[in-house]
Amino acid sequence: MIYVSRERTMMFVALQVHPHHTPGELSLSDYQSERNSTVLTAYETFNRELAIELGAEPSVAAEDAKAFVDMQQELLKDEVEPSAKYQEFSETTLKDLYANADCTWLGVPQTITALFGLTNITLKTDERVATFDRKVTKRLEDIKAILETKSERQIRNYFGFLHAQQYALYTSRMRQLYYTLEKVNI
């Protein structure tokens, strides 16, 4: 089993929950652009180091990390203003998910962004809150179905993995994350 240190993982929480600037200090577009750039750079570093830890050659690891960041760029196109509910969710649930010092899950930062879009879906009204809740619920159902019914090749293609070891670790933690999120009833 491979673990990531708590300190290293908490760095990603800080990047997602507490950006360098608040929306009031920058224009919304500048704030989003700066935050997105910072987070994606961190993700690219994280994925590159992860692949190397799993035995990949540095050049292959770099290619995989870049491919992951390219995938994130698509997710970051639909941002709207941050909201109180988003901040509350970020600062409670995310911290709870990451704060297990004995066994920090490898891959959770990517999971949160790539599969749930929690760093780029924000809400301003009750209607959007309801839409968000439905989206997350539907995503959980989709993920569960994918993990339970698809072949390894299909899952690897779906999540964009190029290494079988990375696929195995990631899907294991996806199952853990799915049941954790189900347990806390988000």
Automatic annotation (TrEMBL):
Xref: InterPro entries: Peptidase_M13_dom_2, Peptidase_M13_N
Domain Peptidase M13 N-terminal stretches: 24-181
GO biological process, one term: proteolysis
Name recorded for this polypeptide: Peptidase M13 N-terminal domain-containing protein
Protein source organism: Elysia marginata
